[in-house]
C-alpha cells in the first residue's frame, strides 16, 4: 500500500506520511498560502501546478522529492493568441519520459524533458470544432483527464469540460472524438448527443484492463469497455448519479467508486449525508458506504481530482471542498477521517 | 415570432416549456415572455440588460455569441433555447 499522500489545496501542498494504523501526519508543507491545483510525483521528482490569483499559472518542480524547489516553465500558448493559459489543471507522466499537461482554455501540452520545455499539441488546438467547446465550472474549456495507455504510450485518452472525450493513437498528431453514447441534459434536445457538448467531469482507466473506462459525467455515470468507442449510461441509483470524482480498482475493472451529490445546480450531499458509492459488479448494483464518514449533517463535495486509489486497490483517499480528508484501508467498507482541518482540497495523489 | 424554451433550472420563475412568443429579435421575444414573468428577467439578463455571463442562448441549436445574440433577428421557424452555461459551475 502507498504510505504517502500529496494534498493540493487552496492554501498549499501538504505531504502526508503514514505513521501507523489510522495515523497519518503532515511531514512537509510547501507553498503555504498559494493555491495548488495539482501535484504529480514521478519517482523522486515532483511537478506542482499553482494557480496564482494575481500572477497567473505557475509550475514548480523539485528534483529531490520536495527538499528543494525551482520554478519551471509553464505551458504557454503562442504570443498573440486570443486566449492564454489560465490554469494547468492536470499533469500526467507516460512512464517513458514524456509528460502531458491539460490546461484551461482547453489546450494540451507535452514535455519530453521533464518539464523544462512544453510543446502545444497543435492538432487538438486547431480542431475545427473548438469554437463549439464551452466552459464547465470555469469560464473556459478545461482538460482535466489524461489517460496514457500502459500498453502503448502513444495511445492517450483525454476528457474536457466541456468538449467530450478524445483519443489519439499517434502520440497526439491526430485525434478522434470518443463520445458515442454520452448524453447531455443541459443542451437543447437536438444537441443532447453532440460529442463536444458532453461534460465528462472525470474519466479513469483501469490499469490492468485499460480498455475499461469509467466516467462521472455532468448528468450521469457512464462506462466503456472499448476505450471510449461506445459509452453506456448506468441506471440511476441512490443517492444520486451526480458527482465529480471516480476511481477504478487497478486490477478489477468492475470495481469503481463515486462520491455523489444532488444534481447539478445544487451539488451537495443528499439530505446532508456524505457517502461514497461503490460498484463491484461493473455498475449493475451500488453499495452506499458510510461507515466512518460523518454522522452529522455534512456538506462536503469531492472534486474530480480529489479521490485516489493506490496500487493495492484497497486504500483510497478523498479530500473535500471543506477540507476534510478520509482514508479507507478496505476498499471503502470503513473510513477514518484525519484530524486536521485542511484548506479546500483540489486534488489528492498517492505517491 | 419564435419558439421559445427555457432550462428547467428556471422553472420556479417562468414557464419553461417550448411555446410561440411574438417578437422580431431574440430580445423582443424575451421581453414578451418576461412581460408575463417579470421575475425571470433578472435571472437571464443583468441590471444593464445584457445577457448574464453564465447563461447561454441557443438559436436553432447553435450557441450564439452572447454579446450579439439578443439583437439577432428571428422568424416563426426559429427555436430559442435559454440554458444555464456550464461555465457557471
SSE blueprint and pairings:
The complex is a heterodimer of chains A (351) and B (89).
Chain A: E1 4-9, E2 12-20, E3 23-30, E4 36-42, E5 45-52, E6 56-62, E7 70-72, E8 87-93, E9 99-104, E10 108-111, E11 119-120, H1 122-125, E12 142-148, E13 156-161, E14 164-168, E15 176-177, E16 200-205, E17 213-217, E18 220-224, E19 232-233, E20 242-248, E21 256-261, E22 276-279, E23 287-289, E24 307-309, E25 316-319, E26 325-328, E27 335-337, E28 345-350
Antiparallel strand pairs in A: 1-2, 1-28, 2-3, 4-5, 5-6, 6-7, 8-9, 9-10, 10-11, 12-13, 13-14, 14-15, 16-17, 17-18, 18-19, 20-21, 21-22, 22-23, 24-25, 25-26, 26-27
Chain B: E1 2-6, E2 19-21, H1 26-36, H2 38-44, E3 55-59, E4 62-63, E5 79-84
Parallel strand pairs in B: 1-5
Antiparallel strand pairs in B: 1-2, 3-4, 3-5
Helix pairs in contact in B: 1-2
Record keyword descriptors for this entry.
heterodimer, A: 351 residues, mainly beta, Methylamine Dehydrogenase, Chain H, four-stranded antiparallel β-sheet, 28 strands, 1% helix, globular, B: 89 residues, alpha+beta, Ubiquitin-like (UB roll), five-stranded mixed β-sheet, 2 helices, 5 strands
Kindly report the average pLDDT value of chain B.
94
Please report the number of helical segments of chain A: 1
Bin the helical content of chain A: under 10%
Shape estimate of chain B:
globular
The percent range for strand residues of chain B is 15-25%
Q: Radius of gyration of chain A, Cα only, in angstroms?
A: 19 Å
H/E element sequence of chain B: EEHHEEE
Please, how many domains of chain B?
1
- Major sheet attributes of chain A: 4 strands, antiparallel
User: Distance between the terminal alpha carbons of chain A, to the nearest Å?
Assistant: 10 Å
Total strand segments of chain B: 5
Total domain count of chain A: 1
